[in-house]
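[User] At your convenience, examine this fold.
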Amino acid sequence: MKTINIVLGALLLIFGGLFFINDWQKVIGALFFAGGIFSISTDLILASNNQDDRNIKLRAGHTSYLISVVYIFIIVLLFQSGILNDPINGFALILLGVILAFPISMLYYRNEQ
């Protein structure tokens, strides 16, 4: 199952790169790329399923939820102040932040132990 997830993550990285390079849909390409990074990083960081890894997943989930709520609040403030004008780019920023918050917090808690 781990190899299937890594292959799917690699395919998401490839398709995201193709979408982003060929100017088809930069927002979708960036989201595919972030999804590929998320898939590969979660499989490589936490390969086993022991109690320590479960605690890391639990702590990383709580931290990424908190980061996501603060990040969405900041993006809404940027919309209200007029710094961000395009709602699609703001929505893509929100999705990228939410998708990448979990692997970043997992790396932090994994290195902390």
